[in-house]
Amino acid sequence: MITIELPAVMENLDDCLDFLVKGIEQAGIDKKTVFQLRLACEEVIVNVIHYAYPNQQGKVRISYELAEDASNLVILVSDSGVPFNPLEKSEPDISLPIEERQIGGLGIFMVRKVMDSVEYTREDGRNILTLRKVLMK
Amino acid sequence: MESLMTIELAGNILNVTLGGKLDAVRAPELMEELKKMSGQKLEKIIFYTAELEYISSAGLRAIIFAKQKIGLDSEIFFVGAQEAVLDVINMSGLDNFLTILDKV
Fold first, then answer.
1. Is B82 helix (H, G, I), strand (E, B) or coil?
2. Which chain B residues are closer than 8 Å to A31 by Cβ?
3. What mean pLDDT is predicted for residues A29-40?
4. Total number of domains in chain B
């Protein structure tokens, strides 16, 4: 696993995402998939920035592992903040007209769309989201 | 910052040109600019997106905001979007409520 850990603030979002995107681009993953992975990770990291540390400063840790044959990718995003399972948010009703759209929930909805699986666990005082993607060859 | 954004009011048409990335870092700037337009009677809000490389839910929120807060009576256009950006628009179901054009 390759890991980066940075203070969970919006100023570090680009660095977090560039870390991941540069790594997977080097592995020759196609542009569309890289876009989707950036999207999923942004949504998940922004959640950490917004909700994990309501009363103090904290860090977000991003790790990823690409299978040797580049057939699949696992990304872990974790924090040591308050217990928070973003997957429990109710799904937005995307059939509602734009005038009635709720602002929340769209991010996680899209994470589920572009990843093959998303799992939440709470371990040793950490929120851990595990994102998996099967990659096209 | 790769924020490339211009907003220009021409009569009752609001022209918004977007480039680079419209994400959680940069969408708040667009939201602020759009807020300044509240109270205007807009007939059309046109987003020119040929140079827009990336959009996340934060960017979509800014577009939903444009409709709900400043453009309830206006038609929203999304012009020239790249395929990856359109995929996000379609995924969110917003494609049903925007007029998507290759060019004007």
1. coil
2. 84
3. 95
4. 1
Task: Give the angle subtended at the CA of A95 by the CAs of A88 and A84, to the nearest 5°.
Answer: 15
Tally C-beta pairs within 8 A across A and B.
60
User: What's the DSSP call for residue B70?
Assistant: I
What pLDDT shows up at residue A137? Answer: 58
pLDDT, tens digit (0-9, with 9 covering 90-100), for B55-90? 999 999 999 999 888 988 899 999 999 999 999 999
Q: How far apart are CA B82 and CA A85, in angstroms?
A: 33
**Alpha carbons within 13 A on the beta-carbon side of A9:** 5
Measured distance CA(B36)–CA(B18) in Å, rounded: 17
> What's the whole-number average pLDDT of chain A?
93
What are the extents of the domains in chain A? 2-134
pLDDT at B3: 58
B23-51 pLDDT per residue, tens: 999 999 999 999 999 888 899 999 999 99
CATH number, domain of B54, equals: 3.30.750.24
DSSP string computed for A53-104 = -SSS--EEEEEEEE-TTSSEEEEEEEESSS---GGGSPPP-TTS-GGG--SS
The domain of B72 spans 3-101
Query: Of A38, A49, A97, which is closest to B54 when you measure between CB atoms?
Result: A38
At residue A38, the 3 state secondary structure works out as helix
CATH architecture of A2-134: 2-Layer Sandwich (3.30)
